[in-house]
Amino acid sequence: MEIFSQLVKNLDETTGTKAKLRALVEFLERADDADKMWAIALLSGRRPKRAVRSSDLRAWCAEVSGVPIWLMEESYHIVGDLAETLARLTPEPKNDNAKSLSEWMMVLSTMPKMDMEERKQIVLDAWDSLDEFDRFVFNKLLMGGFRLGVSQRLMTRAVAEYTNMDLSLVALRLMGDWNPNTLSWNSFVAQDDQQAMDSRPFPFSLAHPIDGDAEDLGDPADFQAEWKWDGIRAQLIKRKGSVFLWSRGEELITQQFPEIEQAASSLKNDGVWDGEILVVKKAEVQSFDMLQHRLGRKTISEKLLKSHPVVFRAYDTLELDGKDLRQVAQVERSRLLSQVFSVNSNDKLHCVQSIDFLDWQQLSEIRKLSRENRAEGLMLKRKDAPYADGRKRGVWWKWKLDPYTIDAVMIYAMRGHGRRANLYTDYTFALLNEDRELVPICKAYSGLTDAEIREVDAFVKKNTIERFGPVRSVKPELVFEIAFEGARKSTRHKSGVALRFPRIHRWRKDKNADQVDLLSDLLRII
User: The pTM is what?
Assistant: First the structure.
């Protein structure tokens, strides 16, 4: 456990990619095999289920520390992290504990089946045998959450460097539904399960956003353009008669989309295709909100299949009849994609169509039609490029449509977490309704500079009207331009509207609360 705790500390103390990579490799060099597998799992997103409710942890901590709940809550809002708050408030340990990371994980995995008193005793014994930082790490494990700035790709690079394995092979093996309880380090390194390998997707290619003008990319003749769809990124795999559907989040989602599985089973070719899952009704792509009704369900009813019909819209061929095509030029992969899907006509399997254009100006005008075509914008792909592993600059570019914007006034503020625990960084914004009353329409916490955050924080502390726990009601004076990707009707929100991906675009110091937009302006977008 000490070795893993040191890794957590090293990762938390740096933002540099090279330093994080070095810390991960050093951990792999020192840790035993079981701890290696658990660390890889935890830091690549395979977090354990929460073993104990946070309310119980608060109560147990109050019991052993003598700190009342109200004071603990105030401490939590200052510290910004519950696991750290509990670790600091619990008394110093009286006993020693030499359990490894994997041993602790075995204990935590059995806790959900225990009664409350048994769970409580395990937690108290752990607190009484671990030093402060180890308690903090244990609490994180207990509550099932780590945010240490370690991406899947960084974890892949660390394992590849430590094992001298090919980076793409490591990425392939880290994908999927593996479990540290059932997969040993030796099996992971020497894995030769052909059936399992047949089901695995390739690492996804990711696009860079175009920040300036498309003209900066160079000759338009070097690129092909497609609509950028707002669905679920997925890889469709058909190998040796079996069909698999993987999300970009490395989840096997075949059972959630049985109509795609059935359609792919009839394909004449084996292969791996990159694409997007979309809800399509009457030949029109529907909103992402409709697609969400199909997510996370163990069973899909006939009613849902009819009311929310999905398609797989393929836009790249990564493998065809056993041949890896990732190093083949984009234009050739696109030709093969069109060829395969033209002879495998199916209303559940679509092939993306390239957009013809002569120059960047013409493509810019086409981009303005994105919303008419139910798209987010355009994808630009270099014709001579291979299929990249991850986000390789210059291969794929996403040229999204400018977001919607509204001017709204801040009415509530809440403290942030972690390093921003002492600053008010999470804000609620409102618009005026027809009676000129302020109605909350969204929360946002990103988009301001550090200097602007400090300025807003000072305003909140000087202009608080009411306090509701960690939330402060403030004078409605600060106006911000809020950017968002879309809006939909919602019965859960007082305004009757829910915004998609709201964020602060800029601080409108030139406006006051009487000049914010109207709720009716927002409703017109729906």
Answer: 0.65
